[in-house]
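User: Fold this; tokens only.

Assistant: Input:
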Amino acid sequence: MSKVAVLSAGSWGTAFSIVLADAGNEVVLWARREELASAIRTKHENLDYLPGIELPESVTATSDAAEALEGAEVVVFATPSQTFRENLTSWAPLIPPDAVMVSLMKGVELGTLKRMSEVIAEVTGAGPERIAVVSGPNLAKEIAMREPAASVVACADAEVAKRLQHLCHSPAFRPYTSVDVLGCELGGAYKNVVGLVVGMAVGLGFGDNTTASLITRGLAETARLASALGANPLTLMGLAGLGDLVATCSSPLSRNRSFGEKLGQGMTVAEILASTRQVAEGAKSCSSLRALAQQHGVDAPIASHVEDVVAGRITAMDMMNAFIMRDTKAETD
């Protein structure tokens, strides 16, 4: 039994703690609010994010990061991407020096344009053999309900990836290994943006032809940027690419698709944010991904137009019209 610290106790962090516990580990969830940590300890349920789902006995919780991290062999991060650096800066001195750090986050940092693995390396000074990511079609509620699912565990060190694979291989969760951390992270970040645009199309009343077209062109856009940055294009055809993209774009459980639907129905970003406690990473990462694409000379119409909609410069309908009016070309261009 390994001790794993999971920071924090949102829906995905809590769901992954169930996976880890089912795989035979001792799990400590860190919650920002003591009242949530206390409820998890006493009721074995996360009433705020996954009500009605019983947590295993081997999952406990605390609001003290030092307590959560003490003796942890593996540290899993599940905070919103744009607040991660600030949180990690305070946690870094508490992380055991030999612990492997795993990112569940799917975003690109505003300003620096860094992926979450790069933020971990920069803040902690850890080498690539101590940094990993988990990415795939993993909607938190379904994972927590133990519906069968698969994912990718990526680390530059293949042996570390295999160790982590064993650590989270539960009866309902099948992890595959990869050494392509870059490709997995870009696939995870970009699918949120594509989820937004598909949601907007649904909110506008368009059907399956439209959404299938957007999903396909979104995958092509993701692959262009990933290839330009040096990722393995095959990664984008797998669970961390196409798999995650399909789940995000097709499910009403997806935060990003739901956020996009509300934009398509005419709600403002401020109105949507006021109506939910959940974070739609694509609403922030669209700006980072657009800048990253521009930096590398990659055409990224979806990221660009989604950012314009989120910023209020154009409407969702303006965006759809702009896609149709783009210059024609060969599909493989």
